[in-house]
Every structure is written in C-alpha cells, then in structure tokens.
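I am writing to request your help with a piece of structural work I have in hand. The matter concerns a single protein, recorded as an amino acid sequence and a row of backbone structure tokens. Could you please explain, in whatever detail you think fit, how the structure tokens follow from the sequence? Thank you for your consideration; the sequence and its tokens are set out here:
>
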Amino acid sequence: MNIEIVQGPGNAAAKVSLGASESITAESGSMIAMNSHVQMNTTTHSRGGSGGLLKAVKRMFAGESFFLNHYTAGHDGGDVYLSTPLPGDMLTHELNDENLIVQARSFVACADGVDVDLGWQGFKSLLSGESMFWIHLKGSGEVVLNSFGAIYPIEVDGDVLVDTGHIVAFQDTLDFSITKAGKSWLHSFMGGEGLVCKFHGTGTVWCQSHNPPSFGGKLGPLLKRRPR
C-alpha cells in the first residue's frame, strides 16, 4: 500500500494505491473516486473487528459516521481517492504497535492492521466543549488524518497548552487535563481562549491552524436564510 497526499496543503486529498487484495478502512462519505475493480464493503466495525454495533454507536456520540467503508483491490491492485468535508491539509502516520488518540472529525482512513475504537475521555472533554469520546487507533499500519487548515506537530517534553479546537491527534504517552489559558479565569475568557488542554509528558501533539467551531461562529451570522 502506498498513500500519497495530493493537492495540499490547502485542499488536500489522499491517493491510496492498493496492491493485490490489499484493503483500507475509511470514514463513510470520504471517497472521491476509485477504480472500478476496487470493491467497497460497508460495516459498523473495522475490518475483521468485533463489537461492531457498540463501536458504531460510540462513533455517533463522537460525531463520526455510524458506518465504516472497507476498500479492497482486485488481483491487479487499484487506487482510491479520499477527501475531507473541510478544506485543509492531510497527513499519514505510521503506527508500530502503538496507540494514537484522534479528535472527532479528524480520522480519514487506516490500514487493515489498525483497529478503530473510541475511548472515554471523561467529563473533562465535555467541559472543554469537545466530545467525551475520542477515536483510539491501535495497532500497526498507516493512518490518514485531516485538519482544518494547516497541520503541524508539536513535540512535548514537559507541559504544553493547546486550544481544544486546534487538536488533531496526540500520542497516548501524553496525559492531559483541562485548565485555564491565562493567569486567571477572567483573563482566560476576556482573552477569548477560555478552557485549554494541558498536555503533560513526552510525545507529539498534531495541531490544526484553524478552529472549526470558531469558523462556524463567524460564518453563521453571514448566511442568509432561504425565503419560505
């Protein structure tokens, strides 16, 4: 399998070249195009996984699709093109028997050797304005993630504060807590930041340059209502 990010960084898409009988699991609705000899199968769980219905329900709580699509190439291989709802960048990351925690809406696809599940992040995520469930990717193989705007890594060795709306993913070697951005709660909210995630430990946090909720808040008042 070879995954190439094309047309980035502003309007990125992923070209997935599958070898004979190779498969990739992708978020429902992410396909742009595929070769006619690539077969698509839709289930509520990752390929070969178990507990499909429960995992699908949890994905809905996280703001993800109820279903996952599995694309399998024929004897001659084939290509699948994947996209994202919001304009921005995409990245590939190789897991080597490890875990990656992904913010809702940032998961695009993963190889067969990666299991897709959701983990309870507790009420601290709800307080931050985010979903209480975040996607857990576990295993070995490539994963594809997307961002709203540019995507870039921040290497953590100690403590780092990140606005919750700018988190794409982070390694599970990091712990996090919800805290204020400024010296006081008043300064935090007056500065427009409010609650942030404080990451502690050693690992990588991938961030996006734009914040989808903030963008929606700015765009919403500008949209004209259709006459009834």
Summary: The CA atoms of residues 150 and 209 lie 5 Å apart.
